[in-house]
């Protein structure tokens, strides 16, 4: 999952965890670098309004789902492996390959990179539902 995916609940009011579970994705892996980006957005002095609010909601939802143990989607924060200079998109691609996982993203450029690598993506369609390609 990338940073903009974690902004979906606060921006569009969609429960991405429930939607992913309904699609059969029971484990959610979030790279530590994504959490760092989300934390920077929510604490940024320059970010205002919707984005900052969406980042705060996304961050709180991750923490909430980390604590859930009632059979719902399981969230794992994955630390960077190996190359610590790797950018977030490269880290997401590396993790998806290692875990044979799909990636939730609304980032068109990242979706193109993932498609080239043969990695399935889940994305927001019509501002009201998640779909996979």
Order of H and E elements: HHEHHEHEHEE
Instruction: Please estimate the helix content.
Output: 40-55%
CATH class: Alpha Beta
CATH superfamily: 5'-nuclease
Low-confidence stretches: none
Radius of gyration: 14 Å
Mean pLDDT across every amino acid position: 88
Shape: globular
Instruction: Report the CATH architecture.
Output: 3-Layer(aba) Sandwich
- When the domains are counted, the total is 1
Straight-line N-to-C gap: 15 Å
User: Helix count, per DSSP?
Assistant: 6
Neighbour order of strands in the largest sheet: 3-4-5
Largest sheet: 3 strands, mixed
Number of strands: 5
Report the sheet-strand fraction: 15-25%
Please render the helix and strand layout as text.
Layout: H1 3-12, H2 16-22, E1 27-31, H3 32-43, H4 49-67, E2 74-78, H5 88-99, E3 103-104, H6 108-116, E4 121-125, E5 129-132
Parallel strand pairs: 1-2, 3-4
Antiparallel strand pairs: 4-5
Helix pairs in contact: 1-4, 3-4
